[in-house]
């Protein structure tokens, strides 16, 4: 990873409370004025939150350095963590990237518009404020009809991270965005709940072999089918170490975390359930408010505590759809401690476990292993 210093981009330079109050307008996606208003805000360097098929994004003009700086400030996000630039038409790529490798052409043909972000070498027009000082730029063409209409009609390349305060679970409903960003941004487009619920898959095509930097709805298997060989950043399921440099800088931060202390358990179903039941009793006896991240198969087996079901274990799409909403519920309901089950780490399960492990701060206990 290229390091850029002297640009004032270290995390310490972000002051959460320095954002001036802005009156935030919330408009429904079917309001006839919404696209015109959103384009006006973007062109004036302001910020618009909008729905995508993965999670809500917090958008600003990606070619306007001051708009990108505003995004970091509104989220309280370290500015060495680069933003994804969203486009509505393929022609927009020309101004944004230095070259389009063969593998990227195949990926775009197959998966755009859709939940896939591709890392390219950046063109000189893209400011370092947008790329967190990197020489590469992340580009995505979302398929959500509201995002797609906004991007393809305005033709503004929109830099947009997820529309949550830094460290909170990504927003999957307009209420999450209002909760986190009201008073900090100009406009929120309310397009209802999103479908996928986990952020896009990120693939870097700037090296010899394409590499997955963040797992998502487009799985390793789908990418391998299309491209043949594909690598996966080994940092994806590992706890960040001191000298830890995942290729997507954002992956090193503690993300998605509820305020409660979350611990996950792996092992046989019955063993996990009875272990969690015992721990819940203990914690409740100590006066703690306890939650359980369960599945449809186990929700009826927990004897006490607040049971939050993520859906059927085999139905990974519903688990991914519900995960962030349930992590936010942990906060809304004021839980002190939460226990949860783990999922298989293949297909969409890899993305689910990547996000869940981070939320748990990598506290995962294998009940099969002797202590
Ligand atoms: O589904 C999504 O991707 C959503 C919606 C709004 O499109 N966006 C999103 O953005 O998840 P954000 O900022 O929360 O995550 C962007 C990730 C970060 O981990 C960041 O480090 C990585 O993309 N990234 C961005 N530009 C990069 C680059 N040039 N090289 C490597 N990683 C990059
Ligand atoms: Mg994010």
Provide structural commentary.
There is one protein chain. This protein has helices spanning 34-43, 65-75, 102-111, 128-131, 145-154, 174-181, 220-227, 269-285, 316-332, 348-359; strands at 25-28, 48-50, 57-61, 84-86, 116-121, 136-140, 158-159, 187-190, 201-204, 211-214, 231-232, 261-266, 290-294, 306-309, 337-341, 364-366. It is globular and about 60 Å long. It has 10 helices and 16 strands. Helix 1 packs across helix 5 and helix 9 packs parallel to helix 10. It has 2 domains: 11-236, Alpha-Beta Complex (DHBP synthase); 261-366, Rossmann fold, CATH 3.40.50.11030. With 371 residues, the chain is α/β, with parallel strands linked by helices. It has an 11-stranded mixed beta sheet, sandwiched between helices. A hairpin with a 6-residue loop joins strand 9 and strand 10 (211-214). Helices cover 29% and strands 18% of the residues. The protein binds threonylcarbamoyladenylate and magnesium ion. Threonylcarbamoyladenylate (TXA) binds at residues 52, 54-55, 57, 81-84, 117, 119, 131, 134, 136-138, 140, 160-162, 199-200, 202, 213-214, 247-251.
Which structural category do the helix and sheet elements fall into? alpha/beta
Question: Sheet with the most strands?
Answer: 11 strands, mixed
Bound molecules: threonylcarbamoyladenylate, magnesium ion
How are the strands of the biggest sheet laid out side by side? 1-8-2-3-7-4-6-5-9-10-11
Q: What does the overall shape look like?
A: globular
**How much beta, percentage-wise?**
15-25%
Overall helicity: 25-40%
Query: In CATH's first tier, which class of the largest domain applies?
Result: Alpha Beta
Give the overall average pLDDT. Answer: 92
Q: What fold name stands as the CATH topology of the largest domain?
A: DHBP synthase
The stretches of 5 or more residues where confidence is low (pLDDT under 50) are: 1-14
Query: What is the number of strand segments?
Result: 16
In DSSP terms (H or I, runs of 4 or more residues), the helix count works out at 10
- H/E topology pattern: EHEEHEHEHEHEHEEEHEEHEEHEHE
CATH architecture level-2 label of the largest domain: Alpha-Beta Complex
């Amino acid at each position: 990873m290229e390091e850029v210093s002297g640009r004032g981009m270290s995390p310490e330079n972000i002051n959460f409370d320095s954002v001036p109050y802005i009156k935030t307008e919330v408009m429904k996606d079917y309001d006839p004025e919404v696209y015109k208003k959103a384009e006006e805000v973007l062109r004036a360097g302001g910020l618009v939150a909008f729905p995508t098929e993965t999670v809500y994004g917090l958008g600003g003009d990606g070619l306007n350095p001051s708009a990108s700086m505003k995004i970091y400030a509104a989220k309280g996000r370290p500015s060495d963590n680069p933003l994804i630039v969203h486009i509505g038409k393929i022609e927009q790529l020309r101004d944004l990237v230095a070259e389009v490798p063969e593998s990227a052409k195949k990926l775009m043909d197959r998966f755009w518009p859709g939940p896939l972000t591709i890392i390219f070498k950046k063109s000189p027009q893209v400011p370092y404020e947008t790329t967190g000082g990197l020489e590469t730029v992340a580009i995505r063409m979302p398929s959500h009809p509201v995002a797609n209409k906004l991007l393809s009609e305005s033709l503004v390349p929109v830099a947009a991270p997820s529309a949550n305060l830094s460290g909170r679970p990504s927003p999957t409903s307009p209420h999450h965005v209002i909760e986190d960003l009201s008073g900090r941004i100009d406009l929120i487009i309310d397009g209802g709940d999103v479908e996928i619920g986990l952020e896009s898959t990120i693939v870097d095509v700037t090296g010899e072999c394409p590499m997955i930097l963040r797992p998502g709805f487009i799985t390793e298997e789908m990418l391998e089918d299309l491209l043949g060989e594909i690598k996966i950043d080994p940092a994806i399921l590992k706890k960040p170490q001191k000298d830890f440099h995942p290729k997507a800088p954002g992956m090193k931060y503690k993300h998605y975390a509820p305020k409660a202390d979350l611990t996950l358990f792996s092992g046989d179903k019955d063993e996990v359930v009875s272990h969690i039941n015992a721990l819940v009793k203990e914690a409740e006896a100590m006066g703690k408010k306890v939650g359980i991240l369960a599945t449809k198969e186990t929700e009826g087996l927990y004897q006490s505590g607040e049971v939050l079901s993520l859906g059927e274990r085999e139905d990974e799409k519903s688990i991914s759809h519900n995960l962030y909403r349930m992590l936010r519920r942990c906060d809304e309901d004021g839980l002190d401690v939460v226990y949860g089950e783990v999922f298989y780490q293949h297909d969409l399960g890899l993305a689910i476990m990547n996000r869940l492990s981070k939320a748990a701060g990598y506290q995962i206990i294998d009940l099969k292993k002797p202590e």
